[in-house]
Amino acid sequence: MADAQLSSSRTAPADLRRDLERRIRGTVAFDPGTLALYTSDASNYRRVPLGVVIPETVDDCVAAVRTCAEHGVPVVPRGGGTSIAGNAIGTGVVIDTSRHLRAIEHIDPVARTATVQPGVILDDLREAASAHGLTFAPDPSTHSRCTVGGMVGNNACGSHSVAWGTTADNIVALDVLLADGTRMTVGSRHTPEEWAELTRRPGREGGIYTELDRIVEEHRADLRTTMPEFRRRVSGYALDRLLPEKGRDVAAALVGTEGTCVLVLGATVRLVESPPARALAVLGYPDAAAAADAVPDLLDHAPLTAEGINHRMVAALDRHGSRSRVPLPEGGAWLLVEIAGADPAEATGAAERMLSELKGASRPRDAVVVTDAAHQRALWRIREEGAGLTQRTPSGDDAWSGWEDAAVPPRNLGGYLRDFDALMERHGRFGVVYGHFGDGCLHVRIDFALTHERGRREYRAFMEEAADLVVAHGGSLSGEHGDGQARSELLRRMYPEGIIRAFGAFKRAWDPDGLMNPGIIVDPLPLDADIRVAADDRPALPLLSEVTLAYTDDDGDFARTLRRCSGVGKCRRQSGPGVMCPSYQVTQEERHSTRGRAHLLFEMAKGEVITDGWRSEEVRESLDLCLSCKGCLSDCPVNVDMAAYKSEFLHQHYRGRPRPAAHYSMGWLPLWARLAALAPAEANRVARLPGVARLAKRLAGVAARRDLPAFATTTFTRAFRRRQRRGRARTVGRRVVLWPDTFGNHLDPRVLAAATRVLEDAGFTVVLPEGQVCCGLTWVSTGQLDVARAVMRRAVRALEPWVAQGLPVVGLEPSCTAALRHDLVELLPGPASERVAEAVHTLAGFLNAHAPEWRPPRLSARALAQVHCHQHAVMGFDAERELIAGAGIDGEVLDSGCCGLAGDFGFTEGHYEISTAIGERELLPRVRAADADTLVLADGYSCRTQIDQGTGRRALHLAEVLARGIADRDA
């Protein structure tokens, strides 16, 4: 019914849009760019919405739903869009509550409850509750960006459901909105007298309770005998919660309905006491099935959680950029078992007792109790990033969700796992199994071939057999993420016909016209329809073969590159370690997240919603606020490299057309710097004249509020060669090539001079490449890839003779060093580029690898260190940490993310406010608050400039600090 109504309504979307815009304060969008953002979530599916509403208030939600009902248009509720089952997309109007509805309205520490709006981020709720020693127990791995409303929709669980249950177990009341605009509050437990009173209420509300009473009466026997009794039975509607013996819990029955019955406007949730201390026991077993066999005995020790990982998952972490393997006990699979205590000693003692009491098959091959906080975080990172880490098989094939989170009673887990492995082998499939072993819930991404019809038929066959298998083990098709489009069609294999009829009656009680998220759970869509990556439903688009970069990690296949983003939305995190994604953290708009940009590029390539290919203004506008920080290259679980995709897009978008002024000014900075070097004093004097400076900024596309950097009076290369001629340079010892980057050579030569002193003190003779050289970074970041390739070709020619002799290359500017290490082989692939890239080091990395015997000067100082984004993403900062500590510096490495300047980004007109806001998130306030005698370390020229212009403090390169120490030592 809803689909028919929607088809007719598509003939006049202007009427719907007009009415929505007239009644709603928030965003109403029907444009191709916004629709493209919401065509998919974190699932395998793609459905183009009719429109999108981003409400600013709860009243906006009410108005939107009522307006859609008037027009007969379905509504698709959406939170963080991290659903893996395909239950946050649809062809109606998507209502995204995650942007504005984030108020934590009340926390009652005595009653241990919190009342929140649906868009509240889980981590924000947990942080607010922690002030009272409390927490909201469900904690899915997407806790940094998932919303409470979305958790209610899916009945989210997470690692600690072993101790505290699912979202449904922690709901007190829900404020809900029906499709016809009726608003009501439903509670969690009712006495017979209270229930009778509810059925007598007038109007729609009393009618719903009466119908719920009838459903329970009609299906009472099936509800008591055919719904598996274990915590992770999430599939279908939890109608057994309505039984009298279970308290007629309407709120819990609505949890997990996936937006098919009501829109959640608010929730009152139950909080639990957060244990004062926790110990993490890591138990090694031969394989995952052996680990699963141990779970029942482990549960006797009342753990907070019992999570399972295996060797394939650990290997995936190593493949995806981990620079230090996480220490683990001996084994091929591991259980992470968390034990609570009143203090660390009690928690550790309880964990050790548990290990000593395990007998027989439950006894691990090896085990350790981890007390180090950093080690614990590294272990949890493996588990939390599983969905992304396992998206590619070791051979590079795509792996997909679908059979993502089936669950069985924990006592059946070992047997189920063995049978599941046999099923995978029969179908010739590969997947990495991990998950919530303590609750019998497994996650797995499988190498289905979803791009073509035969692969989708095989997908269906596997899903049907897998459903029969999990039912045979007394389990649930879904144990956490809901049914969505992936599993709703399979519910008939899990439940008898009477329960299926009861599900339909339950939905009709709330949504008689079928307008709430149709096609999910009731009257389901086919599980093999609407596959997002299906490539045989449209002609091949030329733009997929027109690309310039090599995309080596995807074997040169740009279509595979665009499939990388899994939609899990780590780029939408509000806080926490890492860089990704600075623009989203400030604007909070989906189009400014890495995921949003990836979805827009995917839709651009598909050509259905965004139809103008590389000329797309929607994609250009989204990428305009991408800082090209490369944070996603390392922080994204699937290593999306949005900086590279932006370069590719800009290259194609402006091909044969005029570019923005900033591309000619800052994109060609190395050339202008070379010209300025002919008369630097005059160039600086002219640039400081007020009228000239204003005009120059305007013509160059530079933000008016930015100070133009001054050129050095003498370039480093000129000073270096003068020093050589005067016989002051070291000429004995092993040689090393110092890369004279544009920023260090023309703008801040003190850095390269300091590095020379450090390298000579370490016993090396410093040499420079012949001629004028550049890494090409500024042309790469502005998408002028033909020029960048020519510049890089010259760089390779200049470095290759030295590299052929076995000489390493040291770069001081992180962005240029990263360009030589990473961008070079993407733009100029081949053995010569690979040899050069492998030879390039940071200063600290070089000293660590080639001068381990050298001892840095001892400095008695405190320091704040800002890590350049490109260094974080490509080279890492471990060697710098060691060198800082080795020099005796009490250094704090800030986890402040991007500085906000990011090369040309913060200088470009229209970016100043965003650039400054990013810096003000943490970096700039921390620098202002630092004592005057605290050193501020920042190896990146952009970082130092942002700190200087934002705080007035001069930041130093680590080389400068070491050179000062050498001078003081030798004085």
Describe the protein's architecture and organization:
This protein has 971 residues and is of the alpha/beta class. The protein contains 45 helices and 24 strands. The chain has a five-stranded antiparallel sheet with strand order 5-6-10-8-9. Strands 1-2-4-3 form a four-stranded mixed sheet, with helices on one face. Strands 13-14-12-15 form a four-stranded antiparallel sheet, sandwiched between helices. A hairpin with a 4-residue loop joins strand 5 (104-108) and strand 6. Helix 24 packs antiparallel against helix 25 (617-624). The chain starts with a helix and ends with a helix.
Set out the fold topology:
Layout: H1 2-9, H2 13-23, E1 27-29, H3 32-37, E2 51-54, H4 58-71, E3 75-78, E4 93-96, E5 104-108, E6 113-116, H5 122-130, E7 134-135, H6 148-154, H7 161-164, E8 171-177, E9 183-187, H8 192-199, H9 203-225, H10 250-254, E10 263-270, E11 272-273, E12 277-285, H11 288-293, H12 295-299, E13 305-310, H13 311-319, E14 333-341, H14 344-357, E15 366-370, H15 373-384, H16 386-389, H17 413-426, E16 431-436, E17 441-446, H18 453-472, H19 484-487, H20 491-494, H21 497-510, H22 558-562, H23 582-587, H24 594-606, H25 617-624, H26 631-635, H27 642-653, H28 661-665, H29 669-676, H30 680-688, H31 690-700, H32 716-725, E18 734-739, H33 742-747, H34 749-761, E19 764-767, H35 777-781, H36 785-804, E20 809-811, H37 814-827, H38 831-839, E21 840-842, H39 843-850, E22 861-866, H40 869-875, H41 878-886, E23 889-893, H42 912-921, H43 923-929, E24 935-938, H44 941-951, H45 958-970
